[in-house]
Specification:
alpha+beta; two-stranded antiparallel ribbon; 5 helices; 4 strands
Length: about 200
């Protein structure tokens, strides 16, 4: 009779423990369901991340100046680039006209075998220019024209490099996935056992 009483008490304790476990599971389930229901669904379409390839930015700028800057979404640099090309093109045209006027007057001076000759260089009229003055004017306008052409080449190369660098900066990972830590380190070899500091890079 005593063993039967112990058996009944044991069944009662196990059933109460099981009931408490089931109740806690149901409460947890209700909590999770309520949490899921309270999170609002995102409205509209999610924007895709900007996928930029630096090589493509360089190719586009090579085909057309400023196109690589448009590819990396740096639209504000396009007017600056074309303003630079426009100024250099105007400088080339301005110096080329005056170079032709100066060299034409020099040829006239040589053909007429005169000491001075009246020449109009650009919008300026010179009543008498010597051979030395015409030589200096010709060299000056030619040099300025050539420097303007070199400036166009430099600006073209610069916008190529700028598009490539901007594309690399757009795709550069500036998150906390890369960390640097310093910790004590010991290196053992046959000669000695030096103690120093070890730099540890962590890539997550």
């Amino acid at each position: 009779m005593k063993y039967l009483l112990y058996f009944v008490l044991f069944l009662g304790l196990t059933q109460s423990a099981f009931a408490q476990k089931v109740d806690s599971l149901e409460i947890a389930k209700v909590g999770v369901d309520s949490l899921v229901k309270t999170i609002p669904a995102p409205k509209g379409k999610l924007k895709k991340p900007l996928n930029i390839v630096p090589r493509y930015a360089t190719y586009k700028s090579l085909a057309l100046p400023g196109l690589g800057q448009a590819y990396v979404r740096q639209y504000w640099t396009i007017p600056i680039i074309y303003a630079g090309f426009g100024g250099l093109a105007y400088a080339i045209h301005w110096n080329q006209i005056r170079y032709k006027d100066a060299i034409g007057g020099w040829q006239t001076l040589i053909n007429e075998k005169a000491t001075t000759v009246p020449v109009q260089i650009g919008n300026t009229y010179y009543p008498a220019l010597t051979e030395n003055q015409l030589r200096q004017a010709t060299a000056q306008y030619r040099r300025q024209r050539d420097l303007s052409i070199i400036g166009c080449v430099v600006l073209y190369a610069f916008q190529l490099v700028e598009a490539n660098v901007s594309a690399h900066l757009k795709t550069f990972d500036n998150t906390d996935d890369i960390s640097l830590k310093f910790k004590p380190g010991v290196r053992t070899d046959y000669a000695s056992t030096p103690i120093g500091i070890t730099a540890v890079y962590t890539f997550k």
